[in-house]
Write a structure and sequence with these properties.
Length: 384
């Protein structure tokens, strides 16, 4: 069965350079109505997608566009939105579909700030496990680590309009996706394990130059994750996610602790480092997980950048076809599917993107423009 995706973006409530959009639950509601009309769909993973807000032609968003900025420099927006992307397969027509269409639920858990002590991800996950245990007849699909601005007194993880540039205060939280399954037992308690890329050369900051540190590629981080999985046969994999931790310029380019939920600085962060996080539970006597295979799919350049237009890339539908062909040839079960924003090879000065690079810099304003970013589909397959 081919791996497909369907996108749902929050409803537009009011237009403008920073539009007002419905909360994230609106996208979940749209997805559930769509699932009700498509009983043949078998949902594998849910993803909180990011897409640039576009003021062009009255369209406030196009999730098919896999690059930012796209179009003309004067049309560049300073905001992105959060929507929902469902990754699914279609069941064969001869198979019996459930009498009641499956429905998706999302659960968000924000860290608590107790003044002298701030919760870590372990505390947040403990509370999330408690909420998941209350959901009878629902099966856990996957868990995500997400970020929201932390400069407001009341933080809202349902917020769907976010600035492109990272603010100086950030909060990371956990979002779990569940799906209704008749007679489904309560899922075991979920744990997580993080894998960071190793630094192979230090960076140096001076008045005259800045030398970036060098880290091992993302594929090497996946290799470490794979070895860990093989060493623990009782681990039952829930999902795999690639997320980012702050690279602190003031501390000679040291990566922040991935357990930390809060970040605050006088200036915006300098850069980010990709971390592989495995969510899992433990079941005695469970079958061997298998080998973890990571695949990256980056859109190709269709038109090079000119003075009047940014480079044009393949759209989502074209890249998904590549995903389908490769996953069919590799075989196995998808353990993680997500969109990772990739940055160009800075040294080449060209529209060359390297999804296997662990380090990327914070996008900055270049005159009136943002430096380009391209959406890469990251797929993790479990192959027996």
């Amino acid at each position: 069965m081919l791996l497909c995706c369907e996108d749902f973006v929050p409803s537009l409530l009011a237009g403008g350079r920073r539009p007002k959009l419905a909360p994230f639950s609106d996208s979940v509601g749209q997805a559930n109505r769509w699932l009700g009309e498509h009983p043949e769909v078998l949902v594998h993973r849910c993803e909180t997608l990011r897409a640039a807000v576009s003021p062009q032609h009255g369209e406030y968003c196009d999730t098919q566009v896999m690059s930012y900025p796209a179009g003309k420099p004067k049309d560049v927006s300073r905001f992105s939105l959060r929507g929902l992307r469902i990754w699914y397969q279609k069941q064969p027509e001869q198979e019996k579909h459930p009498s009641k269409p499956s429905q998706i639920t999302s659960i968000d858990v924000l860290p608590r700030d107790h003044g002298d002590k701030v919760e870590t991800f372990q505390h947040v996950l403990t509370r999330l496990n408690g909420l998941i245990a209350e959901r009878k007849g629902q099966q856990l699909l996957n868990i995500e680590t997400l970020t929201i601005p932390g400069d407001k007194k009341e933080m809202d993880c349902e917020e769907t309009v976010l600035p492109i540039l990272t603010p100086t205060k950030l909060v990371r939280f956990l979002r779990a996706y569940l799906i209704s399954v008749e007679g489904s037992p309560l899922p075991p308690e979920v744990h997580f394990q993080d894998f960071l890329p190793q630094q192979v050369a230090i960076g140096k900051v001076s008045t005259f130059s800045t030398k970036l540190p060098t880290f091992e590629p993302l594929s090497e981080t996946f290799t470490k994750a794979n070895k860990w999985l093989q060493a623990y046969p009782d681990v039952n994999l829930v999902n795999v996610q690639v997320f980012e931790v702050l690279l602190d310029k003031e501390a000679s380019y040291c990566a922040s602790d991935p357990q930390t939920c809060f970040f605050s600085a006088k200036k915006p962060p300098f850069g980010w480092l990709k971390v592989v996080r495995i969510y899992y539970n433990v079941e005695q006597g469970s079958a061997s997980v298998g080998k973890l295979v990571d695949l990256s799919f980056c859109p190709e350049v269709k038109e090079k950048k000119t003075l009047l237009h940014y480079a044009q890339y393949e759209e989502l539908a074209e890249v998904v076809k590549k995903v389908q062909l490769k996953c069919e040839s590799v075989g196995g079960v998808p353990a993680g599917v997500q969109s990772v924003w990739t940055y160009p090879d800075w040294e080449s000065g060209q529209d060359v993107f390297q999804p296997n690079t662990s380090l990327h810099l914070e996008p900055r304003l270049d005159g009136t423009e943002h430096l380009p970013q391209v959406e890469t589909i990251q797929v993790c397959m479990i192959v027996k």
